[in-house]
Amino acid sequence: MTLCQLFLQPDAAYSCISELGELGIVQFRDLNPNVNSFQRKYVNEVRRCEEMERKLRFLETEIKKDELPIYDPEDNPDAPKPREMIDLEATFEKLDHELKEINTNADALLRNFNELTELKHNLTMTQGFFDDAEMAFTPAHNRNQRDSDDDQVQLLYEYSMISHNKLGFITGVVPRERMVAFERMLWRVCRGNVFLRQAEIPELIEDPVSGEKLHKTVFVVFFQGEQLKNRVQKICEGFRANIYPCPENPHERRELAMGVMTRLEDLTVVLSQTQDHRQRVLAATSRNLRTWQIKVKKIKAIYHTMNMFNNDVARKCLIAECWAPVSELDRIQLALRKGSEASGGGTVSSVLNRMVTREQPPTHHKLNKFTQGFQNLVDAYGVATYREINPMPFVLITFPFLFAVMFGDAGHGILVTIFALWMVLKERSLKDKWRNQEVWTIFFGGRYIILLMGIFSIYTGIIYNDVFSKSLNIFGSSWRVRFGDDTLAKHDSVMLEPTPYNYTRSGDYRQMFSGTPYPIGLDPVWQLADNKITYTNSVKMKFAIIIGITQMGFGLFLSLWNHLHFNHRHAIYLEFLPQIIFLACIFFYLIILIFYKWTSFDGSKATDAPSLLIHLINMILFSYKTDPPSAAVFYTGQKQFQTFLILLAVLCVPWMLLGKPIYRIVMNKRRANYSTVTNHAAGNDSDVEEQHQDEFHDPAEKRGVVLDADVRDTDTEDMLDDEHSHQQHHQHEVEMSEVWVEQGIHTIEYFLGCISHTASYLRLWALSLAHAQLSEVLWHMILHLGLSMNGYGGAIASFFVFMPWSSLTVFILLLMEGLSAFLHALRLHWVEFQSKFYKGEGYPFVPFSFRLLLDEAPVEA
């Protein structure tokens, strides 16, 4: 990476930045950090882009409201030129204004249509009320039967006729759920002096105000007097009832109803035409909407980037600073040349100038869709320091392998692999399908990680010979059960001797073990053994120790690579050597003993094999007892050799603790001596120059001016020297105290960490044991119930128990246990592996890229 300076003409800056955005290999720096965002040069253009984005969001909302498809562009459109921005603004303004006008007119027409619909129902049902009332007002001798409502109408009518006043009435429509409270309120406020008739509208009616479709009820309230009229009107307003006029004359009501029907027919035609026009506008917009959104995003990004530049008024150019890969400088210059030509071509082309700086550059990794997920795992711990070794190529293999060691089941690994293969093969169609679902985004982003975890799980499942908690006998077991029926009938279990030749008490020859191990993985006979867990625990525990120590040692050798690259020669002798010697003296030696025990003790000598744990403890304590067989030595001269290893490991502690601080003290003294010699040489040069100047000046002038100058310079130099020496001494004390503390912490952390990190790798054994036992429990407690039955009943039972077994397998063993193994593998890499060589104190290279911009803020289809 290199820091570059760009000199751009104002007219060509837009086109040049557009070309660099298409390349996506330049990270610009903000040269105006103290300038407010609203005070920058191109803030008006950014605001115009934000206004265009607002209008495009409005158009997109309207298109989705009508459920119209939005078409994606076939090609990636280029950023439009600055003069095209005016045309885009005019187009968006026209569509925005036209669509808002259509919506306003459509809303007004629809509101009017809903009001007329309510009025139509109101007139129809009110006419029925009045027809019932006329029947109720007939003389008593012409009526054979009256209900209570008709009696109340008759009483009101007779009372009004006696008082020479007519009954008043108000008609309207109210939502059905409010009708009970509305009637109760009328009764209480008017004290029973009103009469209410109601009828439900059979179909849903769209409310003119809210636009919601509701069940509504038509009502007619009869009253007498202005006081009751005012009360009824206030109650109707309180319940948001829509009041409609209703003439008293039947002929006028009939004419009004006919006029309402005619107007409804006309409004239906007008609404249909309005909706067709709206559909045509939105359909034409949907074909270009995505292209417009991409163009506006690119314009906004270009002007936002140009706001980070300096405007050199004297040179009439824009000055920018950016980080870029050295290997891409030719492409950057070509893009600048292309941008200058696209802007109309000026006499002065854009200039790219490399700068020299001590600032740490950003860290840039060349990645693809396969390695991106693994790099995200590493970057979650910390972005690599510039030029520091990147753990990702090693994590790509070790991470899924450690996961598989804890998840080792070939059956479960096949399910995980099938799921990952489905995501990989269908990635184009699945990329944007559930983009808003956070959990799905995590799974899809790590599809290649899941694929490798599944493949490695199949491998470790074959090594463990574990398929859904069962073993496969593909090559035939190396063990033979050669006991008679009488022996098998007397005992619940029999002992299989591991020796290839075994003689019974009667002298009969019985061969139980062939002497040739199972070709791949664990022998299937262990599936039937009572001591299966004891045996697999021993093997898996030793494998965990071997894997952990090997990975930690590999991490130390990667730190050697860092030291050589950064030319830290002293760190090789003062840090790497004591670290690797300490690790080798105790833990590498333990691995050698493990392999030595495996290869030197067979079945006939198994009872005499020393215990590795007791052996390691005795090695630390310098205790060599031969009384119990487990404490016996492995080879002659073991005591002297192990004593040498322990003393060498103890020597590494002060070596690492004192080496670096002493080195810093020596280097500080050398710098101080070098600065003293340099200052003395500089002082002699100034005396010679002063004598040379005295030959050309008047002696009196020299005495009058130079003497004063000498006094002033001497006082100033003495003051500066005292201050500098004080600051340098204070800085030296603070710096060395920090070095001592830091090195002490680092030493304690490493030597104790070697023990704790080695023990931490035992989680590989623990989680593998837990996964195997859970799988076996699910098999025996659920699926075995159906498989143990015979006949048709067993088939039916197997069908019913398969669903809970498969569900628990997916949710507990695949998801929960898989997540647990994933997190533990991640911890082993972050803490135990990367802590040996990886600092992660850098910051990422985030280039100005249109592709990244569109990926981070995708346009939803």
Overall number of strands: 13
Helix content: 55-70%
Task: Output the radius of gyration.
Answer: 45 Å
Q: Whole-number average pLDDT?
A: 83
The fraction of residues assigned to DSSP E strands is 5-15%
GO molecular function, one term: ATPase binding
Main location: membrane
Function: Essential component of the vacuolar proton pump (V-ATPase), a multimeric enzyme that catalyzes the translocation of protons across the membranes. Required for assembly and activity of the V-ATPase.
Protein name: V-type proton ATPase subunit a
Label this structure with key terms.
13 strands, single chain, 7% strand, Alpha-Beta Plaits, four-stranded antiparallel beta sheet, alpha+beta, 861 residues, five-stranded antiparallel beta sheet
Give the topology, please:
Elements: E1 2-8, H1 10-23, E2 27-28, H2 43-65, H3 84-136, H4 148-162, E3 168-175, H5 179-189, E4 195-200, E5 205-206, E6 213-214, E7 216-223, H6 226-238, E8 242-244, H7 250-306, E9 310-312, E10 317-324, H8 329-342, E11 351-355, H9 372-381, H10 392-407, H11 410-425, H12 427-430, H13 438-445, H14 447-464, H15 485-490, E12 502-503, E13 509-510, H16 532-565, H17 569-600, H18 612-621, H19 638-694, H20 699-760, H21 763-787, H22 791-833, H23 850-856
Antiparallel strand pairs: 1-10, 1-11, 2-10, 3-7, 3-8, 4-7, 5-6, 9-10, 12-13
Helix pairs in contact: 1-7, 1-8, 2-3, 2-7, 3-7, 5-6, 9-10, 10-14, 10-21, 10-22, 11-14, 16-17, 16-20, 16-21, 17-19, 19-20, 21-22
Membrane topology: Multi-pass membrane protein
Keywords: Coiled coil, Hydrogen ion transport, Ion transport, Membrane, Transmembrane, Transmembrane helix, Transport
Coiled coil: 35-119
